[in-house]
Amino acid sequence: MTDKLPTVEHLLEVSIEKMVYGGEGLSRTPEGVLLIQGVIAGERALVLPEPARRGVRRGHLVELTEPSANRVTPDCPYYSRCGGCQYQHIPYAAQVEIKKQILTECFERIAKFQLDIPIQVITSEPWHYRNRIRLQIERDATGFRAGYLEHASHTLVPVDSCPIAMPAIESVVQEISKGTLAELFPEGTAELELFADESGRALLATVYSSQSAPASFGDAWRIALPQFESVCWSQTAPPAHGSRLQDTVWGSGAITYRVGEFHYRVSHHSFFQANHGLLQPMMKAAVGTLSGARALDLYAGAGLFTLPLAHRFERVAAVEAHPAAARDLATNAGVMGTRVRVHHKSAERFLAATSRNWDLVIVDPPRAGLSTPVVAGLRRLAAPRLVYVSCDPTTLARDLKALCPSSYRMESVHLADQFPQTFHIESIVHMTHSG
Prior knowledge:
This protein is α/β, with parallel strands linked by helices and 435 residues long. It has 3 domains: 8-71, CATH 2.40.50.140; 100-125 and 275-433, Vaccinia Virus protein VP39 (Rossmann fold), CATH 3.40.50; 132-256, CATH 2.40.50.1070. The protein is built from 9 helices and 23 strands. An 8-stranded mixed β-sheet has the order 7-22-23-21-20-17-18-19, with helices on both faces. Strand 11 and strand 12 form a beta hairpin.
């Protein structure tokens, strides 16, 4: 039996007013706001409204009745189904403008202030930029599949290419899609994370599965794909993404990533920025020519900003809660001797205990942004300069509302386009204390 096609009376013809964070276009209808994937502001389209979920109503694009002259043909054959990208139908320059508009609107709508300084843009190569991807793996009686999930779905889309991944990673995707490594995986589901160094010559593979590691999995993997420096099978408590029960590692357990003059150990489970071409520009935008006696790097990860800070400040404290990242941070900061002290604890715990005078604080939190205790701690420390590196404009705006203008005023805003073809927005905000 086939699904019934929507009839004309079920469809709405709508105008797309603007693009919103999440990669969708917004349309206002008599029944309320509709969010629609795959459109561009200014287009008209026939859409099939879907039932509201969690107070949000979406529409499925059926036909463009007035397509934009800016529309382009996506480079990826899986774009219409794969949930990884949202903007491939939009020229890259227009993608950047959309992100600038969304960032500005977040400041106005959430932070409640008009941005009176220009947004400086750091652009990226639009393709083959990602040094890290995560594939979904399925193996059952019908065969082996590796790919990404559909948008807002748990349905797997098998792929044999990924044009936003670095060539070294895309070649691995092609090998996996051929079934080269299929026999290594037990039946069931898993996730496979691939990470490459800046040259693409050294890679890490990390498998997340609720099952225990198959015997000799990593040895067989590295024989088939010798460019892998290390392979890790991470058994997790069901469902995947739960707590890790046991890691089985074949190889060194890490690779070395070079960014300009700095070298970083990055191990399995650690955090490192995903766009290999933007690491130096982001480092320059965040740290630049800042200098002084004491700097504090909160949510330091493997130390991307810690090392350049140690070249410009007499003392640096680097704070990281994640165990793997904190271990890498300690190794990477070790070359700076006594200039850097690493604290393996949460930002909340560190700020509750510190009373030092800091000339500069850099924060680079996850998408959830800063917790209420961290915001309070930053206000109490009142460092002369605060740099906020954000990967979510909505939580950035929320936090700036709490910090500005009573405590801080903004001096500059950079939009670092770490993720072309997607809706994700990375930004760097420099602030000076108002007191």
